[in-house]
Backbone:
């Protein structure tokens, strides 16, 4: 049973919240150099915006508003992935593993939001 993969969260509001939390924890472990400070700020903003826009989508005023908010969530997940790739982790194995997991999660969220958009349009 130890080889089982952890179950994915199906509540997207909670999943995006946990993803943003994990991004913030990742940032805390990055080397404190000027370029990382600026890129980390962008990562924190984008990762938080994924969930915030999804919450807005769930409170949408209509279908058009819903689709637009989900598209923004997808865009912010893509931006999060970009900044995860960009930051300098000093090639520390534990930080690199965390980065890889966060990139995977951002990619999965992009795919989920893309599917929601395709089904909603």
Residues:
């Amino acid at each position: 049973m130890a080889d089982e993969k952890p179950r994915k969260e199906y509540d997207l509001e909670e999943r995006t919240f946990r993803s943003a939390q994990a991004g913030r924890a990742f940032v805390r472990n990055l080397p404190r150099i000027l370029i990382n400070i600026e890129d980390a700020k962008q990562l924190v903003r984008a990762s938080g915006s994924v969930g915030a826009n999804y919450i807005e989508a769930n409170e949408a005023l209509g279908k058009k508003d819903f689709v637009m908010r989900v598209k923004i969530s997808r865009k912010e997940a893509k931006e999060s992935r970009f900044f995860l790739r960009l930051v300098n982790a000093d090639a520390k194995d534990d930080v690199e593993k965390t980065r890889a997991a966060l990139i995977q999660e951002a990619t999965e969220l992009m795919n989920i939001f893309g599917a929601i958009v395709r089904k909603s349009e």
Summary: The longest helix spans residues 93-120. The chain has one domain: 12-120.
